[in-house]
Amino acid sequence: MSKQTYKVGFFFRRQFTMAAAEAPADIKNLFKRYSDDSGVMSVQNLHRFLIEIQKEKNASLDNAEAIINNHGGDSKQKGLQLDGFFNCLFSDVNPPLDPKLGIHHDMNAPLSHYYIYTGHNSYLTGNQLSSDCSDIPIIQALQRSVRVIELDIWPNSDKDDIEVLHGRTLTAPVALIKCLRSIKEHAFSASEYPVVITLEDHLTPDLQEKVAEMITQTFGDMLFSPSESLKELPSPESLRKRVMISTKPPKEYLQSKEVKGKR
Length: 263
What we know:
Blueprint: H1 25-33, E1 41-42, H2 43-52, H3 61-70, E2 79-80, H4 82-88, H5 136-143, E3 148-155, E4 162-164, E5 174-175, H6 176-186, E6 195-201, H7 205-219, E7 243-247, H8 251-262
Parallel strand pairs: 3-6, 6-7
Antiparallel strand pairs: 1-2, 3-4, 4-5
């Protein structure tokens, strides 16, 4: 979870590449607001952005210049173009929060207003084709303050239990229950802000019920379960030490539904 960017954030969006063309409208509008007619954000304007938008009241011109230098700022005009600005939001401006250093940001806005430190294939010990799946990389990620853990869930060979693995590859599976228990034990070792478990679901309905039971029994009162449809998400502050689940219908289910619809 990283510092607030005041309506310039994502929730449950997996961002692997950060090309300028993919920058959301909010980012582009902010860049336009703080850049000149040639499409360059100067040291002075980046400094203003840090103070006015990021609320970094102690930010200096030297801080702004260092950010520009880190992201390939235009050497002649000494500033950032859109792609450099977009990239710096994920590193220099919004690094993962370290509770040990103290939290001085406003953490009471809806969760969707924040960048979230997100893992991908969090269970893999190595490459995506032949490595082992394990709870150890998950534990290590949580200890680094990662707040979103991704689990790909599949039926085991007997179709009576659930495993975590990178599907249709040679990766060796790990039991889902082992991963869930490790998440519970280590979820808040580095940060008390909420942990989101994203499930890439490839299960039959009966195994989905089994997963729901596993999750409920494992996390108990730690599990965030809204009593009604939410118009906006709760704040990180109100979700301290809570676990949230993000999932969607299996691709296999959606594909079979699409085929039926064409008949």
